[in-house]
Design goal:
Strand content of chain B: 5-15%
Radius of gyration of chain A: 19 Å
Largest sheet of chain B: 3 strands, antiparallel
CATH class of chain A: Alpha Beta
Order of helices and strands of chain A: HEEHEEEEHE
CATH architecture of the largest domain in chain B: Orthogonal Bundle
Largest sheet of chain A: 5 strands, mixed
Number of strands of chain A: 7
CATH topology of the largest domain in chain B: Cytochrome-c3 Hydrogenase, chain B
Number of helices of chain B: 17
Distance between the termini of chain A: 69 Å
Radius of gyration of chain B: 23 Å
Distance between the termini of chain B: 29 Å
CATH superfamily of chain A: NADH:ubiquinone oxidoreductase Nqo5 subunit
Oligomer: heterodimer
CATH superfamily of the largest domain in chain B: Cytochrome-c3 Hydrogenase, chain B
Largest interface: A-B, 52 and 54 residues
Strand content of chain A: 15-25%
Shape of chain B: globular
Number of helices of chain A: 3
């Protein structure tokens, strides 16, 4: 299986990181999902990404998606934010997920825009929604929320109804208009 | 309290170049007929030539992903289909296939065939509009109407199926809301055999060899094969740059996979159109050919449509009971409440799953994280419009301002999906 070979190549190249591939989900009947993820320490993310992109055995040419999960209330979670990189190889037709865990108060991950240009907007979106900064991003601004927005709305401690944004706007009544 | 209406342009992002005093800045949108939906661009122009472009998005941001964490797996389908409202039923299918990946379910053969037909009808809905609008944006209204007529018939089919023309909410975890109504497949066949081919011929006659149309699109918004991959482009946009990638062939699902009914049924036969130009015209050609292939897939899927249940099994823990049972028997009603009450029902295992469909715009995937509760812990959508739109400044820089509608349409940006 091509994914297993790619993971072996990655483990051979970075033996000191102790990279282990785990299935994304294990079903109740004991079957494991065919989708695998690897935990990567943030300081080595750039090297790992560059290797996965360039090496002929892995050839992950495309960053299919980049997102984040706030594991605040998640069962058995040790870290708060997991930035998730969904990699896709068109040559070998396989996928692999990388997870980089970061924590408060200053969640910071190196940007992978120098490896995959397509990471530019997804990284901005993760910054906008979760407040995770990407070191080395060419233009890290809010993308969906207005620039004067204070909070990070997809964090689990941010309520569904919002937090005080309505009070910022003056109430216009019939008399005052 | 005074409010600053900062629309997202910090002074550092578009600095006025004082050495070129004749350069000027133009605000394009968000309310502009050529942007179709609410998109805003800030352009720096040298005469009519674009030398700088900053897209400003987020006007339609409505927190869909946050809502997804508060609605259960069946409820959220109502929200996902409002992302890409041009082909809503494709969103339904993509969402519930991701849920089924998380639950570890294998759906029934009849359900697979019906979903295949609907996924292709969704592609037709999108492409018929898109190739018509390619003409409309450049000033040719007629082709738009030819495409739109047939699109209405697809909406009629969806209405007959679910009672709602635009947003059918037709899929459920492990199956479908209802079975096909009588006579539906005959109408669908009539549409793809007798209505769409002549309409497509009309559009082609009007546009395909129209010299003005070709000159407006050829060589405009070019992206190379390697750039298309590196910028994460998918779907017709990537295939028009020579990227040979179609999830229906590369990671087959539904009736695109061999042995989809478990009894050795062959996969539906179709070709994936690839173009090498990488420009707006190549994207138009790819979409035209995909319409033909979709019609052929629908014909094959209707011919192969098996009998049998549409839901995983009649008494499975996960699927909702049949409405006849719910309304006419007390056991059915109890069964129904056991499924939908907030503290009952079937929950997925703790874990995460990703599943993507090849929809009209490209790879539409959902990344789900579950903490074992009734609602997803995180419901991430990989929106093809969002990922494809980031390449837009690269495509228009160097072109004239009148090329913007042509490039915008060739990327097929749906703002509701872009901003979610």
């Amino acid at each position: 299986m091509a994914t297993a070979e790619a993971i072996r190549a990655l483990q051979d190249r970075f033996p000191e990181l102790n990279l282990i591939a785990r299935p994304l989900v294990t079903y109740a009947d004991g079957r494991a999902s065919d989708q695998l993820w690897i935990r990567v320490p943030p300081e080595h993310l750039h090297d790992v990404a560059r290797f996965l992109h360039d090496d002929p055995r892995t050839r992950f040419e495309q960053l299919c998606d980049l997102t984040c999960v706030d594991y605040l209330n998640y069962p058995d979670a040790a870290d708060r934010f997991g930035v998730i990189y969904a990699l896709l190889s068109l040559t070998h037709n396989h996928r692999l997920w990388l997870k980089v865990f970061v924590n408060d108060p200053e969640p910071m991950v190196p940007s992978v825009t120098s490896v995959w240009r397509g990471a530019e907007w997804p990284e901005r979106e993760v910054y906008d929604m979760f407040g995770i900064r990407f070191a080395g991003h060419p233009d890290l601004r809010r993308i969906l929320m207005p620039q004067n927005f204070r909070d990070y709305p997809l964090r689990k401690d941010y309520p569904l109804t919002g937090e005080g944004e309505r009070e910022d706007f003056e109430l216009v009544t019939r008399e005052s208009a | 309290m005074p409010v600053s209406y900062d629309l997202g342009l910090e002074p550092t992002t578009l600095e006025r170049d004082e050495s070129h005093e004749d350069h000027w800045t133009l605000n394009y949108g968000p309310q502009h007929p050529a942007t179709h939906t609410t998109l805003r661009l800030v352009l720096e122009l040298d005469g009519e030539r674009i030398i700088g472009c900053i897209p400003d998005i987020g006007f339609l941001h409505s927190g869909f992903e946050k809502l997804g964490e508060h609605l259960d797996y069946n409820q959220y389908v109502v929200v996902v289909e409002r992302m890409n409202y041009i082909c809503p039923v494709s969103n339904d299918i993509a969402w519930h296939m991701a849920c089924e990946k998380l639950f570890g379910l294998e759906i029934t053969p009849r359900c697979k065939a019906i979903r295949t037909i609907l996924a292709e009808l969704g592609r037709l809905q999108d492409h018929l509009l898109n190739i018509g609008v390619a003409g409309l944006d450049l000033g040719g209204f007629t082709a738009f109407l030819y495409g739109f007529n047939e699109r209405e018939l697809i909406n009629d089919l969806v209405e007959q199926l679910s009672g709602i023309r635009f947003h059918p909410s037709y899929t459920r975890v492990g199956g479908l809301a209802y079975d096909l109504p009588p006579g539906w497949t005959a109408r669908a066949l009539d549409l793809v055999q007798n209505r769409i081919p002549p309409a497509l011929r009309d559009v082609e006659t009007l546009l395909l060899r129209n010299r003005i149309f070709i000159e407006r699109l050829k060589g405009v918004g070019v992206i190379s094969h390697d750039d298309a991959i590196n910028w994460s482009l998918t779907g017709p946009v990537a295939r028009a740059s020579g990227v040979k990638r179609d999830l229906r062939k590369d990671e087959p699902y539904l009736c695109y996979a061999d042995n989809w009914d478990g009894r050795g049924a062959p996969a539906v036969q179709f070709k994936v159109p690839i173009a090498y130009g990488g420009d707006a015209y190549a994207r138009f050609l790819v979409r035209v050919e995909e319409i033909r292939q979709s019609c052929s897939i629908i014909e094959q899927a209707v011919a192969m449509l098996p009998e049998g249940p549409i839901n995983v099994t009649a008494n499975a823990e996960v699927t909702l009971p049949n409405k006849d049972e719910v309304y006419f028997s007390i056991e059915g009603l109890i069964h129904h409440f056991e499924k939908i009450m907030t503290n009952r029902g079937h929950c997925p295992p703790v874990g995460e799953a990703y599943f993507a469909n090849e929809t009209a715009n490209g790879e539409l995937g959902y990344y789900l994280a579950s903490d074992g509760g009734k609602a997803p812990y995180r419901a991430r959508c990989r929106p093809p419009s969002f990922i494809n739109y980031q390449v837009f400044p690269k495509l228009v820089i160097g072109h004239q301002i009148s090329d913007i509608p042509a490039v915008l349409n060739s990327l097929n940006i749906i703002a509701a999906e872009l901003d979610r």
